[in-house]
């Protein structure tokens, strides 16, 4: 399948803005080039070191009464254009939804429910006065009920997170998820909810799963933490260890949230088209006993949130 023009344009922009030594270092680090490619290239070796370094943020004094916020940015690479997302920087709320592809196979617009849920949640957050308590579960429930009331077709997974004070709270249904990293290591990770292999919990107007099935929780954050949010197009194709390495690199090189999201999304896009083992192929083997090669071609949404005071 030919790369869609919109995706090709984004990938070209990512490549153009990524220094050539960094591109070589990433290929060496992830195994598509031999280590000898770094011979006599001090710049490439420097980036390789950044990829494997454990970032240790400065021991800055944190003032408990000062609330935290997230500097967030997204990258979206479409395959079927059925993902939807929103970021409200003022309220520190992030949402991602992924339309269920099986609906497309039945002739239904698989993007309808994912877009409607995110549209409803975005509108509710925007209508609130800054400082209003925003519960991710409540946001998801109200967004879902409005989508049902509008008789929206199709089905969708969804995740909503909000940062209030110093606590990140979440609610998710299905396999759209998130990870929280501290000093380059994952300290909190959503666990995909599946009815069976490749069939996640999903919200719809007349489905079995409801918002009451959502996984909810909260974690206290610190300055320097990184929040990654994405659809399964990210998590099906990129191992947690690689996500940690990208975040470590981002910290070492002081990459912007947008650039880091773009690099991770571009990597996921390539892994989806690779014959190498992926989280998707591992899950298939463990759940069904069937061995498949490579990743899973899908829409890829990646949101990176840097936690700052």
First-residue to last-residue Cα separation: 45 Å
Largest sheet: 6 strands, antiparallel
Helix content: 25-40%
Mean pLDDT score: 92
Radius of gyration: 19 Å
Catalytic activity: O-phospho-L-threonyl-[protein] + H2O = L-threonyl-[protein] + phosphate; O-phospho-L-seryl-[protein] + H2O = L-seryl-[protein] + phosphate
Domain PPM-type phosphatase: 67-307
Organism: Brachypodium distachyon
Keywords: Hydrolase, Magnesium, Manganese, Metal-binding, Protein phosphatase
Characterise this structure.
The protein is an alpha+beta fold and 309 residues long. The protein has one domain (53-308): Phosphatase 2c, domain 1 (4-Layer Sandwich), CATH 3.60.40.10. The chain contains 10 helices and 13 strands. It has helices spanning 5-17, 20-29, 42-52, 101-105, 112-127, 136-149, 232-235, 240-253, 257-272, 279-288; strands at residues 69-77, 83-88, 93-99, 155-164, 167-173, 177-182, 185-189, 194-196, 199-200, 203-204, 215-220, 226-230, 300-308. Strands 2, 3, 4, 5, 10 and 11 form a 6-stranded antiparallel sheet that branches. It has a 5-stranded antiparallel sheet with strand order 1-13-12-6-7. The chain has a two-stranded antiparallel ribbon with strand order 8-9. Strand 2 and strand 3 (93-99) form a beta hairpin. The mean pLDDT is 92.
């Amino acid at each position: 399948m030919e790369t869609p023009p919109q995706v090709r344009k984004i990938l070209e922009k990512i490549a153009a803005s990524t220094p050539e030594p960094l591109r070589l270092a990433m290929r060496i680090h992830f195994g598509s080039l031999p280590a000898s490619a770094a011979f006599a290239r001090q710049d490439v070796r420097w980036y390789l070191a950044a990829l494997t370094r454990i970032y240790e943020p400065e021991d800055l004094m944190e003032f408990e009464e000062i609330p935290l916020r997230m500097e967030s940015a997204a990258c979206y690479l479409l395959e079927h254009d059925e993902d939807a997302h929103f970021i409200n920087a003022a309220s520190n709320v992030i949402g991602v939804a992924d339309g269920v592809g099986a609906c497309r196979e039945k002739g239904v617009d698989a993007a309808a429910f994912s877009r409607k849920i995110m549209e409803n949640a975005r509108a509710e957050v925007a209508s609130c006065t800054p400082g209003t308590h925003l519960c991710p579960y409540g946001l998801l429930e109200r967004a879902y009920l409005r989508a049902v009331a509008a008789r929206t077709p199709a089905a969708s997974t969804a995740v909503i997170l909000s940062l209030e004070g110093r606590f990140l709270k979440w609610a998710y249904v299905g396999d759209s998820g998130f990870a929280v990293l501290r000093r380059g290591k994952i300290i909190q990770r959503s666990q995909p909810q599946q009815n069976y292999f490749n069939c996640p919990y999903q919200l719809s107007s007349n489905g079995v799963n409801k918002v009451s099935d959502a996984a909810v929780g909260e974690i206290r954050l610190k300055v320097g933490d990184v929040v990654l949010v994405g659809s399964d197009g990210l998590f099906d194709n990129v191992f947690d260890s690689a996500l940690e390495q990208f975040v470590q690199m981002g910290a070492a090189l002081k990459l912007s949230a947008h650039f880091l999201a773009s690099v991770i999304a571009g990597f996921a896009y390539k892994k989806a088209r690779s014959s190498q083992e992926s989280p998707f192929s591992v899950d298939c083997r463990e759940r069904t006993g069937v061995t498949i090669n490579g990743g899973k071609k899908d829409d890829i949404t990646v949101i990176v949130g840097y936690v700052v005071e």
